[in-house]
């Protein structure tokens, strides 16, 4: 009797302590008190979000749609969400540093989610992580259903699974989480899709409808084929496509700035598809709807005004980002083709933003630099030139401004010293790339060697730096924050 009482007591206590997990649109609402209960499920994807975050709001409907798709498939995978602004202990425990951050828990152990943010991408990534790399498609009906359910699907046709081609296909499937893979050994399927054993076909519900692989059967070659063929010939830029655009292997992009309201997509984007097809493994064609207010910053980033639309640019996303501008504003097929070919031939010069030089640029103690007068002033070998690279919107730059003015006033009568500033959001230099705001660099007299200032941004700290010719920068004192350039530069989810 005592043992029975103990068991009943423990069960009751457990029920009292186990909070019911609420759901919103099929997504578990997780808190510190129910988080461990949720992780009793073998597979759980958790979104850590902030209610005010725009990217979180954009993700919400796709996340809910993914939960619904998984539920309809009777999947054991659960989707949950945590308001990280309310559940700060959970956010700290899992080192959440930005929103949204998604973590995938397998039997309680987390890994970072690095898939797309559309419902199909989320589902595909999760199914890859919880099942076989390639789904067995045993019947004609299963293949038809597989292709119907996915915008992009890759199917390997193999009569014999012992061959090297099959192994290379499975290896590629294991390395790509973005798209679903299937395998069929059914002769009826081969006949229906007019293929044969040893073939790999990428099916897509856009453009040509499918692409047949005819290259060497190794992991890298198959992967390159899939990642290039799975993207539309002209990708429309939006929040959902951004990660695939920037996360892909193709780092050169032709950007077509168009207006949907003006009918530019039909006039320019459609004809561009044929050119994109010729170069699809070398350069990615991307359309950007200039009518959307959210895209204004992209125009600003390229120094463009809405009046210039339709227009095009090329951007190269290597270690240092490079931008290229055509000689004339013409988006005819011949002009696009020539612009792309000249770029691929390495004959285009980078397009650098520059303001017009103000007439009174040297009127005040702090000299104003733009791209056109930078080298003449900063690389004067008779002077030590301290330059602040700033952004007008940067709060840290605004805090520094009165101190910088005092510094310039202090050295205005010293012939061998120049204190200057440049708005680095609208002026670019081929030889100097700025990573954060404000950035302070001294161009030393004699050899023009560059010394970065990393000390305390006070009048005393900056004065010591200038007086010592860049040898002393008050190192060791706490530095103030910097604003990364990418906070204002279109990146994976903003370009």
TrEMBL record:
UniProt EC number: 5.3.4.1
Compositional bias segments (type: Acidic residues): 479-488
Pfam families on file: Thioredoxin (PF00085), Thioredoxin_6 (PF13848)
PROSITE patterns, alphabetized: THIOREDOXIN_1, THIOREDOXIN_2
Ranges where the record places region Disordered: 472-495
GO molecular function, one term: protein disulfide isomerase activity
GO biological process annotation, one example: response to endoplasmic reticulum stress
Principal subcellular localization: endoplasmic reticulum
Signal peptide feature range: 1-18
Reaction(s) catalysed (UniProt annotation): Catalyzes the rearrangement of -S-S- bonds in proteins
Covalent S-S links between cysteines: 53-56, 394-397
UniProt xrefs under InterPro entries: PDI_thioredoxin-like_dom, Prot_disulphide_isomerase, Thioredoxin-like_sf, Thioredoxin_CS, Thioredoxin_domain
Enzyme category, top tier: isomerase
GO cellular component: endoplasmic reticulum lumen
Location of the protein in the cell: Endoplasmic reticulum lumen
Occurrences of domain Thioredoxin (ranges): 9-148, 330-471
Keyword annotations: Disulfide bond, Endoplasmic reticulum, Isomerase, Redox-active center, Repeat, Signal
Highest taxon in the source lineage: Eukaryota
Similarity annotation: Belongs to the protein disulfide isomerase family.
Entry protein name: Protein disulfide-isomerase
